[in-house]
Design goal:
This protein has 193 residues and is an all-alpha fold. The protein is built from 8 helices and no strands. The longest helix has 30 residues. It is globular, with a radius of gyration of 18 Å. 41% of the residues are buried.
Length: 193
Amino acid sequence: PERQERTRPRMIDTWREVRGDRAMVEALLGKVPLVLVNGVAWVMLNERSLHLPTLGVAAIALGALQAARAVGTGIGPWITQAVGARLGDAAAWGLASWATFSGIALFALSEHPGWLLVWTALWGAGIGANWVQTTARRQRLATDEHQGRLAGLDALITTVASVTLTLVGAWVGDTFGDVRAGLWLGMALAITA
């Protein structure tokens, strides 16, 4: 408890020190648009796994979809690194964003299990690339003294954004009888964030 009391003000002080640094704030908030839609997409992924008879029971379907997303998450950073080296960081950031949005939107619109796996991998590629890009940028910009506290702020911001939209998306999906309703809300918020 005493240690937590000492850490909390340091995190607040660290935020106060960096909030005027636009590049650092962009790095800290760089995951937010994608995790907003990602949170709602998790609800959709779980719901869709219940209705994929060609992949077997729901647990197998969910596992296959998660595995496809994991493969994408591993490949995405490699692809955007190559794009960034040729076309610049802005192109790599744009590619990560559009891969995420496109993969999730196409996943929402598809019915065939094979395509669902492809779109889930695309979604994962975008999220994985964004995660690596924002984390690497934050680490490059931060002093050694601030690394841990900024990583904590990054995790807090990312978790709160994702969980909030997961809950809102699930509620909207239940209210309108289709989980995709929550997804489109998440997309709209993510694009405007």
